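Students often ask why we bother encoding 3D structure as a string. The short answer is that it lets us treat folding as translation between two languages. Here is a chain of 580 residues written in the first language.
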Amino acid sequence: MTEQNNNQPPANPSRPEEPGKSQPAHDHLLANVSKQVRVSPIWIVPIVALLIGLWLIYDNYTRVGKQITLSMTNAEGIEAGKTKIKVHSVDIGQVEQVTLSDDLTHIEVLARITPKAQPMLVKDTQLWVVKPRIGLEGISGLNTVISGSYIQLQPGKELEETDHFTVLDQPPISLNGAKGVHVNLEGKVGNALRVGDPVTYQGLRVGRVVSATFDPKQRKMQHELFIEHPYDVLVTENSRFWTAVGIDVKLDAEGFKANIPTVESLIAGGVSFGHPDDTPMGQPVRSETKFELFANEDAARQQTYAQYIEYVLLVDDTVRGLTKGAPVEFRGLRIGTVMNVPWKFNSPERKKDFRYAIPVLIHLEPGRLADNGQANLEEWKTRIGHMLERGLHATLKSGNLLTGSVYVDLNVGQKGHKPYKRERFEGLPVLPTTATSLAQIEQKLSDLLDKLNRLNVEPVLSGLDKNLQQSEITMKEIRALSVQVNQFISQPDLQQMPANLNKTMQEVQTTLKGLSPDSPAYQELTSTLQRLDKALRDIQPLARTLNEEPSAVLFGRKPGNDPVPQAPANQQVPQAPANP
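And here it is in the second language, the structure alphabet:
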């Protein structure tokens, strides 16, 4: 395009160009004029409205927050547009939609969370429905009776975010961030616990069961416990856990025992833990430490004595009443436990060498006699070896007459005991056994019956028969004599005899009254006796004279010397003067 001359006048736009006529040569030097497009002010309003709309959309998106999906087994109390999601009683979201899942197995709830609460939406965040509940700890959620149920959110600690959560059927036992320790227990199916069951220590509730699952491969229950602070220091490396089974009544060889737990444990069961006697508590454990769950306290404490020496008893008598777990005692002290009754009953060694003896496996646990529960097994093996040389033996004795349970009693020395012979059964040493006390009594009775059977009792029985016949004759004679005596007593004269005797006694009594000191006869008799006595005293001189000189009655008494008293032997008696 050639450059235009700006000094030339522009072409006349009003004059049209005639067709078929060529333009003058100078017309090609004229400028082309184009019209400029101008924006009308009317478009400003729609543009501003569009910008405002975009801002409102963005603002609405940032205000509404993130949408999450909740899975629930039951939508009771959940309403779209009404049910709130709260954290510490502060609203952070709301339920928007409640629908069934495609497979009709659960409920799917769509909810909207405020932007400020979005950092809480991590993988370990917990949600549950707050509504009125009645449990072991009382009644909770009464405030929802008026306001309605709501979903409680407990923030987690992980960093991984998610928008899908499962709502718990029950409130969690341990909240995220709560101080305490988590403990994992492994036990048999019979020791299954439920979520929420109490965990007690010496009767004090210190925690709860958080979860309970069953492992079908190992056929064991897996439990998770949460021990609250400050009781978490009680869980140490030496702790033992066992199932609390309400009232535990035990009647065995050790006697009668009754264990009555707390009221809560009595109703709900639960789990208890403690520490073995005479052992240190040990160091506190970290979270997720594994322990074994035992069936009862005795089984838990039995696990403490991990050191043991195995022996086999070959019992020739009956083992009725001897069960697994029965005590092994030495002079009243428990030093072991019966482990199996019988043990390897079909062993070829039993059929070959020990015939019909029943093998019983026992554990001797020297730690029961140690101060700290630990013992030197080699030293104890040597000690037991010396005791075997001195006659150590085992005997089954009755522990309880009501239940018939027995226990193993060890003792040293016995009259006529056989020298110890080292024997082994299935690779374990055999501890000698003796007959039970009941078996000894039975043997003595059997020997006595044998002796009685050998006695010739026929002559004795014959003589006894004759004696019985003679006794029968004697009894007949006694009966006849008793009849005669009865007839004699029944005679009328004999019946009147007591009256006659009574009359006679009255007459004798009357006679005796006449001879009493106050009676005249008695006084007359006394006076007569006095006069007679005086007369006899008067006659005594005459009688003496007649006795000495009978002739004095006729001639008178001859004169004589006066009587002279006798002098002592050492003195001379003076001679009386002669009568002139």
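Translate back mentally: Residues 1-22 have pLDDT under 50 and may be disordered. Keep this in mind for the problem set.
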